[in-house]
Amino acid sequence: MSKFSSERCVCAPQRRSAGTSIGPKVSFSMRVDMVGGTCDKRGSHRTRLPCPCCCRGDRRRSGGERNGPGLEWHMAALSVRPSRRSRAASRAAWTLPLATAQAVAVPAIDEPEPDWTLPVTTPGNPARPGIAELADRRARDPARQLALRNTAIVAGGTAVVGAYGLARWWQDGFDGRFKTTNEGWFSQDTDYGGADKLGHAYINYANVRLLTPLFQTAGNSHQASVRLAGLTTVGIFTAVEVVDGYSRKYRFSPQDALMNVAGAAFGVLMESRQDLDDKFDFRFAYRPSPGSGFEPFGDYSGQRYLMVAKADGFDALRRIPVLRYLEFSVGYQARGFEPGGERRRDIYLGVGLNLSRLLADSAYGGQMHSTPVQRATDRMFDLLQFPTAVYANKRLD
């Protein structure tokens, strides 16, 4: 608001000013009488306050700029008089005789006041939740909770593998240089005759088969659980191979990395195709080799890997009373690859009992995977070969 005359100045604060209680609904004007002195336009005087005649556009701190947030003073016309001290100094100084001011209420412009308050929940305003309620909603958000549980599973698996690696694989430390090696596949002149390669495939396969129900328990769908299990497995064991490349004892092996991916992919396939899972298993059998303790992950000569076909998974064989309990396997084992041993590689053909079908018919009325306990037991039977089979072997060397 701006209003000019020769006799009065209007001061209209339009918003709440910092440090004062003046509200946005009230404005004040001050009437100041001319008590002496004249203005000879521009340059005839020096003043601390703007002259209404020649300094009308000057908006300094004392005149026309915003005096604090939300408060603007509009200077109209100002009547001033020279002070005695200024005349003695031969220089004009202009002062404002506030003692003669009269406060007169004038209408103010009704402008909306900005809302700087934090949202607060009230019974009549449920649409504006407070901070505590927002935090509680986030804590109860199902998607957020599911993401936290998935993160916990991934972090827990990474921590377990990392701790085992530090204790058994990387105890000699790292040298900061990335090194690679070509280990070969299954030939007799390799370090372990290919048993280590099947070990990489199996551990990734088993990891996918174990993580999938764990992700389902956390609240994921079966399809999402299979995807998470596959990605988590490949990510963890690929990282292990990369760390091997920086260790003093091992090197990065492309063959190991490929077998990791192959094993994880086979696990994803079996989890995605129930008909294949009913027919086939990829199993691990272990018997300590002579002169070795119980080291199922490090004693390659004692490891045997089997691909098993279950008669119960085929409709034609399931109807035959005795045959439905049998399973047929093909296996591979490499022995004697430790220093000083006699190296040999063997292929195995075996016939065994389907323990999952025996358990279902004897304890669960013929139903497969009917309870959590039965599902956990079946998963163990799917991954591990118990001594319930007989084999015939063929030596390859």
Structural description of this entry:
The protein is α+β, with helices and mostly antiparallel strands and 397 residues long. It folds into two domains: 1-115, no CATH class; 147-395, no CATH class. Helices cover 35% and strands 15% of the residues. The chain has ten helices and ten strands. It has helices spanning 84-88, 131-139, 142-168, 195-217, 222-246, 254-272, 274-279, 315-318, 355-363, 372-383; strands spanning 8-11, 27-31, 81-82, 94-95, 103-106, 280-286, 303-310, 326-335, 344-353, 389-395. Strand 8 (326-335) and strand 9 (344-353) form a beta hairpin. This is DUF2279 domain-containing protein. Pfam families: DUF2279.
Which helices and strands occur, and which strands form pairs?
Blueprint: E1 8-11, E2 27-31, E3 81-82, H1 84-88, E4 94-95, E5 103-106, H2 131-139, H3 142-168, H4 195-217, H5 222-246, H6 254-272, H7 274-279, E6 280-286, E7 303-310, H8 315-318, E8 326-335, E9 344-353, H9 355-363, H10 372-383, E10 389-395
Antiparallel strand pairs: 1-2, 2-5, 3-4, 6-7, 7-8, 8-9, 9-10
Pfam family, one: DUF2279
Protein name: DUF2279 domain-containing protein
